[in-house]
């Protein structure tokens, strides 16, 4: 299998409303793919099509090499899935619920369940009906990962999780990738995707507007820098290609650079730089620009 | 332990089955306890003939001078059928449509379990639940017959119970099937309820209006009740009820497999 997920012209209409409009996506195995987009963009629709819960209006999708319509059950057997609004049986406790799903799937190593529950600080003995929102979400995460699937599709997995558990969760996601698996997760939160994803896709109004690696995005992103000179910062800085938002306070120039910093550094070097502080590139801005249609 | 969809369905019914069993047992025993005083009414025949004709036909009032006829008229022709219908329809509507509306179906479907296997597992669970209620109905009828010397043959009791189970099955499976096709519990309750009322009206009309009587065999109530339903022979008409129940599931399965699953 050389692709984990592949779609061609994937389209979904609800009545007259077009929720998804010809998505072409190829995701190779062994990576974490972050799927971003504003509310109502079509993230959940894409995910539910891939999980075999919706039927495409047009186009095709294969997951792990299996057609999501014609080979749905075989595909679902190998998939881990966390819905956007996960709901389990309120009258079962965590262990009963997960054992039921494990029985439906077969071949689940229960040690995996207990160790994951421990990592996420989840009490399997309590009924789902009395669990807090975040703790219920943990049950959803465990059921999606417990059979060690080759591909995990997660719809906004971190909703309701506190920051510490979010970190644990991201660790679980990395573990899947390190074991050669693929993770497809949707989110609104760029920082979360940035922390774990290798590639991102941005969807808006049912169309993919960008698919790229996080590394490439970072290279293209605005990088904020503070340059402190021995004397006055040179006037010529603002004329350099890619430099934005230049402000000067004393002997320090605060600025943002788009793309390569080579030209800036070459121009600044003759002016006796005392200190350079570079901030992490801010992907958020790129995403906001795509979100509201400027991108 | 919940090992599969079938056992999960049974587990979900257990409380409700206990409640319904207690209710049905109480009802049958109380009704049976009335029998000795009815039987000993000096002018029973006269009293019965004063009923309106329609009533006499629908409930076979003429046979009420025996214990079998009494229970047929008092319980097995209307009250018990309604109870089995309510149980079958309300449980059947919950199985797929209810689970889909609550959102729990979503994760269960993204497993190796196909929509058809899920549907069949749930249907089997509902069938067994109805059989339990049928068994309870039969046992309590036998107990009432023995305690109040009603003289009802065990074989008749078995046939009567089977008839109740099959009525519940027909409309319970219809509710399950409509739920699997639409994903909406309200529709899954409404369709079989309306169908049952229609079939009952057809049954009663068929008994009274000659021009309608040709349609009688189409009514599941006729199929289930015509012989008693506490009766000495197992009517071949029962097979129509089984057939009807199987057909609605068979029609629903491919639709369920092809339609979108709704989000909670
Ligand atoms: N069953 C449905 N019937 C009609 N319209 C639907 C249905 N499901 C989704 N839609 C519409 O399709 C569009 C895409 O919805 P979707 O749930 O995929 O968005 P999303 O990207 O997941 O949004 P969010 O970030 O809010 O979760 C929305 O306009 C939504 O209203
Ligand atoms: Mg969504």
Mean pLDDT across the residues of chain A is: 91
What's the CATH class of the largest domain in chain A, please? Answer: Alpha Beta
Distinct ligands: adenosine-5'-triphosphate, magnesium ion
SS content category of chain A: alpha/beta
Low-pLDDT residue spans of chain B: none
Q: What fraction of the residues of chain A are assigned to beta strands by DSSP?
A: 25-35%
- Determine the fraction of residues in helical runs of chain B and give it as a percent range: over 70%
Helicity level of chain A, as a percent range? Answer: 25-40%
Work out the strand percent of chain B: under 5%
Biggest sheet descriptor of chain B? none
CATH architecture of the largest domain in chain A: 3-Layer(aba) Sandwich
Strand order of the largest sheet of chain A: 6-7-8-3-9-10
Oligomer: heterodimer
GO molecular function (chain B): ABC-type transporter activity
Keywords (chain B): Membrane, Transmembrane, Transmembrane helix
Protein name (chain B): ABC transporter permease subunit
Transmembrane segments (chain B): 17-38, 58-87, 123-143, 155-180, 187-209, 238-257
Overall description:
The complex is a heterodimer of chains A (295) and B (264). Chain A is α/β, with parallel strands linked by helices and 295 residues long. Helix content of chain A is 33%, strand content 31%. By secondary structure, chain B is mainly α. Chain B contains eleven helices and no strands. In chain B, α7 runs antiparallel to α8 (154-182). The two termini of chain B are 26 Å apart. In chain B, 48% of the residues are buried. The model of chain B has no long low-confidence stretch (mean pLDDT 90). Chain A binds chain B through residues 44, 48, 51-55, 72-74, 76-77, 79, 81, 83-89, 92, 96, 99-101, 103-106, 140, 143, and chain B through 1-5, 8, 102-104, 106-114, 258-261, 263-264. Magnesium ion is lined by residues 43-44, 84, 155 of chain A.
């Amino acid at each position: 299998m050389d692709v984990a997920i592949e779609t061609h012209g994937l389209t979904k209409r609800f009545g007259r409303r077009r929720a998804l409009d010809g998505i072409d996506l190829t995701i190779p195995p062994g990576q974490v793919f972050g799927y971003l987009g504003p509310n109502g963009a079509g993230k959940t629709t894409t995910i539910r099509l891939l999980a075999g819960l919706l039927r495409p209006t047009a186009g095709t999708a294969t997951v792990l090499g299996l057609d999501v319509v014609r080979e749905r059950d075989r595909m679902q057997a190998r998939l881990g899935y966390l819905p956007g609004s996960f709901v389990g049986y309120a009258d079962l406790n965590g262990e009963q619920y997960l054992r039921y799903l494990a029985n439906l799937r077969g071949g689940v190593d229960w040690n995996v369940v207990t160790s994951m529950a421990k990592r996420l600080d989840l009490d399997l003995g309590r009924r789902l009906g009395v669990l807090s929102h975040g703790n219920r979400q943990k049950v959803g995460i465990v059921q999606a990962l417990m059979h060690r699937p080759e591909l995990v599709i997660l719809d906004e997995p971190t909703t309701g999780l506190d920051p510490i558990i979010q970190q644990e969760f991201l660790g679980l996601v990395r573990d899947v990738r390190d074991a050669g698996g693929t993770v497809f997760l949707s989110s609104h939160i760029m920082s979360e995707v940035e922390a774990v994803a290798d590639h991102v896709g941005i969807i808006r109004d049912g169309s993919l507007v960008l698919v790229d690696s996080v590394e490439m995005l970072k290279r293209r992103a605005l990088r904020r820098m503070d340059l402190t000179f021995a004397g006055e910062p040179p006037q010529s800085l603002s004329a350099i290609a890619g430099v934005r938002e230049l402000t000067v306070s004393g002997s320090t120039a605060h600025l943002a650079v788009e793309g390569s910093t080579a030209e800036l550094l070459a121009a600044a070097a003759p002016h006796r730089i005392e200190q350079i502080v570079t901030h992490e590139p801010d992907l958020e801005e790129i995403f906001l620009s795509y979100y509201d249609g400027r991108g | 332990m919940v090992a599969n969809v079938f056992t999960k369905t049974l587990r979900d019914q257990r409380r409700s089955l206990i409640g319904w069993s207690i209710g049905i047992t109480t009802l049958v025993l109380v009704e049976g306890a009335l029998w000795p005083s009815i039987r000993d009414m000096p002018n029973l025949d006269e009293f019965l003939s004063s009923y309106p004709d329609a009533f006499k036909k629908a409930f076979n009032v003429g046979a009420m001078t025996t214990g079998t006829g009494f229970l047929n008229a008092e319980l097995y022709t209307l009250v018990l059928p309604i109870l089995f219908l309510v149980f079958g329809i309300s449980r059947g509507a919950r199985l797929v449509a209810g689970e889909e509306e609550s959102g729990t179906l979503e994760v269960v479907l993204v497993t190796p379990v196909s929509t058809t296997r899920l549907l069949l597992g749930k249907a089997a669970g509902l069938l067994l639940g109805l059989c339990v209620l049928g068994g309870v109905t039969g046992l309590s009828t036998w107990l009432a017959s023995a305690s109040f010397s009603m003289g009802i043959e065990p074989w008749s009791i078995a046939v009567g119970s089977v008839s109740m189970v099959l009525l519940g099955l027909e409309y319970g499976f219809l509710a399950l099937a409509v739920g699997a096709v639409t994903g909406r519990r309200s529709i899954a309750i409404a369709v079989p309820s309306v169908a049952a009322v229609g079939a009952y009206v057809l049954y009663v009309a068929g008994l009274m209006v000659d021009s309608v009587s040709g349609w009688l065999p189409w009514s599941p109530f006729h199929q289930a009740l015509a012989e008693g339903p506490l009766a000495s022979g197992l009517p071949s008409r029962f097979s129509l009820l089984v057939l009807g129940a199987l057909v609605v599931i068979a029609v629903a399965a491919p639709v369920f497999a092809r339609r979108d699953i709704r989000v909670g």
